[in-house]
Amino acid sequence: MKKINLYTHKKILVLGLAKSGVSAALLLHKLGAFVTVNDYKPLSENPEAQGLLEQGIKVICGEHPIELLEEGFELIVKNPGIPYHNPMIEGAMKRGIPVITEVELASQISEAPFIAITGTNGKTTTTTLIYEILNAGHKSPLIAGNIGTVASEVAQAAKVHNQIVIELSSFQLMGTPSFRPRIAILTNLYDAHLDYHGTRLEYVKAKANITKNQTSDDFFIVNAEQADVMNIARGSKAQIVPFSAVRELSSGAYIKDDWVIFNGEQIMKRSDIRLPGSHNLENILSAVAAAKLSGVNNEAIYQVLNTFTGVKHRLQFIDEVDGRMFYNDSKATNILATKNALAAFDKPIILLAGGLDRGNEFDELIPSFTNVKAIITFGQTAKKLEDVATKTGIKTIRRVDNVGKAVPLAYQLSEPGDVILLSPACASWDQYKTFEVRGDIFIEAVHMLK
Predict the structure, then answer these.
(1) Which domains does the chain have, with CATH numbers?
(2) Residue 211, annotated ligand binder?
(3) Residue 72, marked binder
(4) Do the bridges between strand 372-377 and strand 396-399 make them parallel or antiparallel, or are there none, so unpaired?
(5) Is 121 part of any known ligand binding site?
(6) Is the pTM of this model over 0.85?
(7) Are 358 and 427 spatial neighbours (Cβ–Cβ below 8 Å)?
(8) Which residues on adjacent β-strands are paired with residue 242?
(9) What are phi and psi of 34, to 5 degrees?
(10) Which residues bind ATP (predicted)?
């Protein structure tokens, strides 16, 4: 960990706890700052805040009092989930108080370089693949961010010989004024989180922050098939490394004659890759590019890609039961993710779908229903999905109360050779706290069949 005096004797407010807030507060305290933590959850129900209090850190819980901003804070470290239209954040910005996220702190103290991954879809799979490949190649990677340990905790332990592989959301990237990854990856851009950002333009601008501080010594791996991504690339000072799953490129990562190619070099046969789905091919190509730029040999890349079958809840193969293949894609919380999942299979599919109603319709799914022989719906969007299935001509349409009941019904409706796919196309919050909880219930129900 780098020894910095940037925050010594500075008054800093950590707004919102969870894991990142706790880590930020403890780190700033260690760095000599005068830290105040403000969290909305009452102290009596807040073990994280109680723990910080025991460390001698000032804690204010149960509300976000706007008058707190009059105490002369020089910086606010914001939980990424708190939107910028929150009165506390708006008040801070009016007063000229800088607002950052915990990732910025991590980058300031880290001795290790970062490989940072963002995008609308594919972040977690790409991050996991890069970590696994670097690990197989003995490159001493550490994993951080949304799918690992909090970034500032990892950064404190990281040494010069490590590489921190980090998945970053648009929420995190909005608070990173100096964050500079050695390798940045932008997987793709689609409409997402517009309730947080307000407009697509603001969302895209947030994602572009991943490369804003890169220099000509750094690398920016980008999806060559997306105009918005390439527009961001044109404004980057980094060395641009494109990837494409649909055409040959003059440089970067692509497919040619069933080979994965990087800068003209044959890496491995596409047919030897275990992970299903054409959308995952883009994730694989970006991971291969990051691995090669990090000096990993082809044997390590082959070892991982020939055995890796997916991240939990992301088109994850669960089991085969009496010839039926069960896949958990609970992370498919939007239509595009479900379209990608459906495109990954050429066998008959029984689709389990439904969840939170955000006001959208599902007609976009119609072209993807070619192999869907039956659909089982649940949640607030059940009726909308049933209407789309009817339009498509799907004959077997059933509704159940929840995912747990959908699994045995899907088994009854299926035949050997069928794929039974949980890919909800919706968020889980109408019935489940997280998509992980929803996926775990699916997995348990599959195991109960055996």
Answers:
(1) 11-100 (3.40.50.720), 103-305 (3.40.1190.10), 316-449 (3.90.190.20)
(2) no
(3) no
(4) parallel
(5) yes
(6) no
(7) yes
(8) 222
(9) -95, 100
(10) 119-125
